[in-house]
Amino acid sequence: MGSRGRRYDDEPKLNLKKVIGVIIAIAVIVMIIISIVNIVKNSNKKIEVKIYSYYTSYENGKFGVINNDGETVIEPSYDEMITIPNNSKPIFICTYDVNDETGTYKTKAINEKNEEILTGYDTIETIDNYDSKENIWYEDNVLRVSKDGKYGIIDFNGQEVLPCEYDEISALKGNTNNFIVKKGKNIGLINEKGQAIINTEYKNILTLEEGYKDAYIIVNADDKYGLISTTGTILIEPKYSEVKYLGDSNLFAVKQDKTWQLMDTSENKILIDKGYEDFKEVKSDNIIVKKDGKYGVITKENKEKIKPEYDDLEYAFSIYYIAKKDGKYGVITLDNETVIKFEYKAMTYIENGGFIQADKSDTETVIFDNNLGQKISGIVSEINTDNGYIKVYTNNEYKYYNFKLEEKSSSDLLTANSLFLSKKDGKYGYVDKSGKVVIDYIYEDGTEQNSKGFAAIKKDGVWGSINKIGAISCEPSVNLDNSIYIDFIGSWHLSDSGLYYEK
To answer: Least enclosed by CB within 10 Å: which of 50, 245, 409, 429?
Structure first.
C-alpha cells in the first residue's frame, strides 16, 4: 500500500496558475468575440446625437436662456435681454450693471454652463441688422468687441477678425456679413473675414439693393453719390445726387439736377437723359418709367411699349406686368392687353413659386398659376419658400398646396413632423402620418408642429402646447389675443415682440 501511495504522489499534478491563466484567456477571447458580434449588429444603427438650439427666455421680470426642449439653460436672472447671435451656438451675450444716468454698462459672453468666455475685452456685443421690412437679426458668426475705446471684430472661437482700432463698427443694413468701419470722419466696408471691400475714404456707404453684393453706393465728402464694385473699380463717378439699382448689372438710374437719367456702366454713357420723372425697373430690354405721374414701359432705345397710364407697374414674369389702375390691381402684357381684370386690392408675384398672389378682400386671396389660371382661393396664412408649400384657410379648414398648386396633405409636405393638425365637426385634433387619431378633436384651434417639435392648442379661449408625441407640455392657460405669431417651446410661449419666449 505504501509503494502505491508513492507512485500516486509521483504522478503529474495540475498547475493551478496555468489553469487559471487558460480560463482567463478563453474568457477574454469570448468577450472579444461577443464585442465583435455586437459591433457588427450595431454597425447599421444610427448613433443619435442630440442637437440643441437656444432661445432667450423671460420670467418674473428677468431674462435667461432655454433650449429647444424648453429646458432652462441659463436661469432668468438678468435685467437686460440676453442676445443670442446664432441659436445653434451656445454663446450668449449678457448686459449688466446698466447705469442710465451715465449711460454706462458692462457686457460678457457666457456658454451653456454659465461660464464666461471670449474674455479680454472691455465690451463684447452682437452686431444687429435689419432690412426694409423691419426684419431684425444678428450677424451669426462674428461679434463686436472693444478695448480702450476702439472697436474690433472676433469670431465665435475668439479669433481676431479685425483689431480694435476703429472708432465705430456696424452692419451694412440689409446685407449679411458686410460691416461698416469708421476711422475719424471716413468709413469703409469689410467682410466677415476682415478683408477690405471698400477702403476707409468715404463719408457714407449704402446698400445698392438688399442682398446685392456686386456693387455698393458710395458718398463722398461733397454728398455726391457714385457706385463702386467689390474689386474697388469705380463704376459710376460720385457726382450725382442719387444712384438707383434697376435689376440689371449694367443699367442704373442716376439723378442729376433733379432729373433722372439712365446710365449704361458697361459703355460708361448716359442712354436717356430727359423725358421721364423716374426709372423704376429693367427686365431684358424693357424699362419701367414714370412720366406725368404715371407708369409705362419703354425700351433702351426709348421706344414706347406700354403707354404711361398706370398708377403703378411691376414686372411679374415672361411678358406680364402687374399694374395698378383706379386703385385696383390687374395683369397686363407688353402689348398692353389686360389678361387679369383690375379687381384686386393687392397683387404680388412670388418668384420662388412662380405664381401670382392676388388679394380680393381681407378674407379672400386668389392664387394664379403661370398660365394665369385661377387655382386657389381662400385666406393664405403661409407661403413657405423654404419647403415649397402654401397654407390656405378655406371652407373653415386649412389646406396645403405645393408650388405646382397641387393640393397635398400636410404629411406630404411637413415631412419632419410626427403629428398633423386635423379638423372634424368644427374641432381640431392631431393625427399621425397614417391618419390615425392621436389627439381627439377637442380644441378650438391649433397649429402644426414647429421646428422644435411643439404645437400650440387652444381651448376655452386660451392657448397651451403639446410635444411631438402628443403629450401636454403646457395646459391651455395663456391668453394670446394680442400675439401675431402663436409659438411654443414646452411651457414657454413667444412674446408679443417676437424676440423671446416667456411664461
So the answer is: 50
